[in-house]
Automatic annotation (TrEMBL):
Family affiliation: Belongs to the aldehyde dehydrogenase family.
Gene Ontology molecular functions: glyceraldehyde-3-phosphate dehydrogenase (NADP+) (non-phosphorylating) activity
Name the record gives this protein: NADP-dependent glyceraldehyde-3-phosphate dehydrogenase
EC top class named in words: oxidoreductase
Amino acid sequence: MAISLQPNELAAKFPTLDEIPAAYRISAPLHQREILINGELRHWGGPVRTVRSPVHVRTRDGALEAVEVGSYPVTTATESDQALDAASKAYASGTGEWPTMGVDRRISHVQDFTRRLIEKREQIVNLIMWEIGKSAADSAKEFDRTVEYIRQTIDALKELDNNNSRFQIVEGTIAQIRRAPLGVVLCMGPYNYPLNETFTTLIPALIMGNVILFKPPKFGTLLFAPILEAFRDSFPAGVVNTVYGPGEEVVPPLMESGQVNVLALIGSSRVADKLKKLHPKTNRLRAVLGLDAKNAAIILPDADLDLTVKECVLGALSFNGQRCTALKTILVHRSVADAFLAKFCAALEGLQIGMPWEKGVAITPLPDAGKPGYLSECIDDAKKHGAEVRNIGGGEYCASLYVPALVYPVNERMRLYREEQFGPIVPVVPFDNIEDALSYVESSDYGQQVSIFGTDAETIATLVDPLVNQVCRVNINCQCQRGPDVFPFTGRKDSAEGTLSVADALRAFSIRTMVAAKETPASKALLDDIVLGHKSAFINTRYIF
Ligand code: G3H
């Protein structure tokens, strides 16, 4: 179905209750009344927040109603403090059971957790879909990618640990060097990949021997409810603890306590900046951050436009443009702008707009109720400064369904030029000289990725060399993206701090530490005794298969 729709046609895209396929229906709302602190699922009798889906249903009188998914506890700073206390006790300045446990045993705990997680696959995938409106196919992909990420993490840790399972002798010093945990990690993931991006920090942090305070994102909270028991049963008490409640209320006291050793946040640079400054001993705080981005596509005059449009549609509009890696500005050489816009409009016409369970759906309801209004303000602002929406119906919306808008020509006076829209608007900026395209990227506050579309090797090489010093991934003739997860995912400027690939994340959540002794017969005998007697989790030459 084409997406050039009138608002009443958009309303008709929402189902009646009966039209929701049985396989995806919410049989009963999930009312979570437990929080995980110190290895206990504690009953919560206080205030709760109702979760309403971005998916609406049409009622008999023609109104649209957001579907109730369930509710979850809104805890206070008191419960966060209890969670912090439990985590600190479990870590016990690095002397706790979990941080001193051998790597092979920690891996077994994570494997046990993964088995329990997989048992909940169907329920979690359905909750991702209902809570954030991600298509059923992509929700399933998110789950499976996460499980695969955990498996890859386990393999990477085995390799890392096995490589360190030996002594080195340099200049008369015998040493064994391993990676050790950092302490209490506060993990906060984003709403667009609530499971995957939370776990790409939580799992490496956990498996390296840290203890976790985990705050679910603002949308995509309930999907963690089915996992709480698995956390409780797979790890020693206090190793994983939950924090609910409004972020601005419950998170600052955690940072002010000085007891958080690592802030792992996938979110906005504004929030990260504020939180870091609250820590009383900033030198003790490590930050692992995935932040804002405004990735650009640069389309050269000799680009293969069919391929370019295909990649740019995917890059700009997968999950409605709600990806940190999305293409958020398209810079097109003026000589091919008209042809590009025509092909892009045609591609937009072919995108299916609808409910997340529909096969082949591309555009689905947006979880943030304020987003359609914000996007429309951006379009109005662009129109005021001379741009127009090029595709029929672009920018129309009904409740949470928003028709993607191709906006052209965008210039520096418009909000869309610099603001990260994080939604289904595609701002297109024409350029005449390659230097202008380069200077857009150079003068940006963000530095995550860029995509170049063209066929001339010399021009592309000329662009790549300056761009690799502006961003952390230059994509040639393809959209920006995070994966494959073994590749480094990071950014410059206000886009990231630290690197998150499968292997890099293990390093980000640990520090190298070593045991050293003089190369004397007495030292050798002593170390032999420890190794052969299996007396230490650190000093050993065990190989983990
Ligand atoms: O939101 C940011 C995600 O890390 C993007 O991941 O490029 O695989 O969609 P993706």
